[in-house]
Amino acid sequence: MGLSVIPFIIAQFPKMLKTHHGQRLAVLLALITSFLLVLSYCLYQVFQPWIQRRKLAYAKHKHVISGILRHAQMQALGRLLNDDGTPNEDVIRKLFRKIDIDDSGNLSHSELHALIVGINFEELDFDKMDAVDKVMNDFDTSRNDVLEEDEFVQGMKKWLNEAKRTVPASGAFSNKFINEFHERTRQEHAQLIDKSDEAVESVENPGWCIAKAVGFLLLGAAIAAAFADPLVDAVHNFSNATHIPSFFISFIALPLATNSSEAVSAIIFASRKKQRTCSLTFSEVYGGVTMNNTLCLGVFLALIYFRNLTWDFSSEVLIILVVCVIMALFTSFRTTFPLWTCLIAYMLYPLSLVIVYILDYVFGWS
Questions:
Q1: How far apart (Å, rounded) are the C-alpha atoms in residues 90 and 108?
Q2: Which of 92, 129, 262, 302 has the most crowded Cβ, counting Cβ within 10 A?
Q3: Dihedral angle at the C-alpha atoms of 75, 79, 85, 88, nearest 10 degrees?
Q4: Which pLDDT value is given to residue 130?
Q5: Rounded mean pLDDT of the chain?
Q6: What DSSP string runs through 233-289?
Q7: Hey, is 343 helix, strand or coil?
Q8: Per-residue model confidence (pLDDT) at position 121
Q9: Tens digit of pLDDT for each residue in 327-356?
Q10: What is this entry's stated membrane topology (predicted)?
């Protein structure tokens, strides 16, 4: 959603430089960028299930590794991390020798399988052999299908450093530190499991679904292009007939009408008060904004370019940039949203109307 404001910046660039040269080229570049972003967004939606499966597989692997670290702590072999946070190689080598049942100097698939089976993963149901293969692939840098002691030490040190990045520690790295890392990985896996039900659900005949979606996009773009000019005339005529400034019709009445379907859909999802449906609500909002900033803008820019019109929307562009950037930054650093956060989003709408009105009618920007 944040990236979708790039075409606005490109189109507005000559205005920011206060020059009339290159305005038509800027509109063309913004037009091309808009449709490239539409294509990128559509491709992301197509590949999102694959991305979600990769995330889930990595979270599961991370949780298995954290279980191995916790198991080493519980076996009273010693602390895996020294007071300064550096990995304790002596303890890691003790763990290796304990897992190496046949004293061969390396770990086989069967020995890793025995280790993972012996670890209590009550909250996680997974294929043990698949977990063994992933651990072997992660640690076995020589690719000889066995884990040598140095490879095991280096692999464990890598994941201990990952634990230090995941769990902020202050002071000494106690046994509780590893337990907290294990709990964090369990929570990450649980959250992805909750999201994966709708994200990785298999679709019958995906080729037909993609073709239908592309068809609807093209049809929507064609309708928008065909009715854009008559809509402007209708707004202008309605404004003259009712003596209501076109500003209020364009920025208050029309947005409520054109975005009503997304609003109703989002409210229905949110009213179920479940984590998955709340996630769908945010996806609905982000998707609506992204498509408005890319596909709808692309159609508008195409009309401006091919009919050789003038791009003069400085105040509107400024507000779109401010609102999208604020919400993009605000939501990029949070995964949960308390009730008070909605007040910020709500206040941006009337604030935007006031600023656009002042810039247009007081300072004469457009």
A1: 21
A2: 92
A3: -90
A4: 80
A5: 81
A6: HHHHHHHHHHT--HHHIIIIIHHHHHTHHHHHHHHHHHHT--HHHHHHHHHHHHHHH
A7: helix
A8: 64
A9: 888 888 877 788 888 888 889 989 988 998
A10: Multi-pass membrane protein
Mean pLDDT of 192-206: 57
Task: Determine the pLDDT at residue 317.
Answer: 87
Phi, psi torsion values for 53, nearest 5 degrees: -65, -40
Q: Which residue has the higher pLDDT, 30 or 364?
A: 30
pTM of the model as a whole? 0.61
Distance CA 24, CA 36 (A): 19
Structure token digits, residue 101:
């049942």
pLDDT at 38 over 50: yes
> What are the tokens at 329?
């930054």
Q: Given this model, what pLDDT does residue 198 score?
A: 45
- Tokens for 360, please give them: 């247009």
Amino acid identity of residue 344, one-letter, is I
Helices (H), the chain: 6-16, 23-74, 89-99, 109-118, 128-139, 149-166, 175-199, 206-242, 246-248, 254-258, 260-271, 275-291, 297-306, 314-332, 341-357
φ and ψ at 86, to 5 degrees? Answer: -80, 145
Res. 272: pLDDT tops 70: yes
Q: Is 333 exposed, middle or buried (0-12, 13-18, 19+ CB in 10 A)?
A: exposed
CA distances from 262 to 21, 99, 281, 288, 323 (A): 39, 56, 9, 7, 18
Residue 61 burial (CB count, 10 A) = 19
Tell me the three state secondary structure of residue 87: strand
Residue 240, amino acid: N
CB distance 91 to 79 below 8 Å = yes
Token reading at 98: 């304990």
Q: Show Cβ contacts of residue 334 under 8 Å, excluding neighbours closer than 6 positions.
A: 341
9-15 contacts, C-beta under 8 A, 24 or more apart: 9/321, 11/301, 11/311, 11/317, 12/311, 12/313, 12/314, 12/317, 15/311, 15/312, 15/314
